[in-house]
Amino acid sequence: MNKLSKRMQKATALVDANKSYPLKDALKVVKEYAATCASKFDESVEMVLELGIDARQTDQGIRGAESMPSGLGKTVKVAVFVSEDKVDAAKKAGADIAGSDDLVEIVKSGKADFDVCIATPDMMAKVGVLGKVLGPRGLMPNAKLGTLTADFAAAIKQVKAGQVAYKNDKGGIVHAGIGKVSFTEDALESNVMALYKAVLRAKPSSSKGVYMRNVYLSTTMGPSIKLDLQSMVS
Known about the structure:
The protein is α/β, with parallel strands linked by helices. The protein contains 8 helices and 9 strands.
């Protein structure tokens, strides 16, 4: 059996695996971890939400996007597919890359060097042929995510400010990064609550029984902290 490193032993000692932590207490643990155990890089703070949905049923899947009040602490590179007459406007709005047929060809060649892809509805006939390239990376524009829209300027602004796209996996679990360990406790709390409430609002009408089963926080390299859901009620 491999022994835990001294850093991981120290990090694991911060968390009682049998305890559910009120959100504020969990965030204190995250900050203590950041001060004493964190890696040399600014680790991400991640959130896992276990949902009581039947992910096999198409009407019970959830998907959406939510802006994080405190941002995400990272630079997001955005590509925008628009008609030729709107390329300059998209770039002025903050797009890192913008184009029409030329951008389609760039992506086809495998040079999809961006984190988020936005498209106007009139461009989807062209963007649709990029499904095999964009689909596996989760980059296909989608109305539910706010990335398929005529108002590309507003979409760019939201994405650049820090927007989390969420979607359940086959086990009915949502995974999302909600900030960095360098964030203040208040900043992390506002982001946690924003995503939590967004997923609550997304509850499918056909879902029965307990919907929000468990929520956990962790850092990139740190232990998982189970949250007391009663502390999330406001």
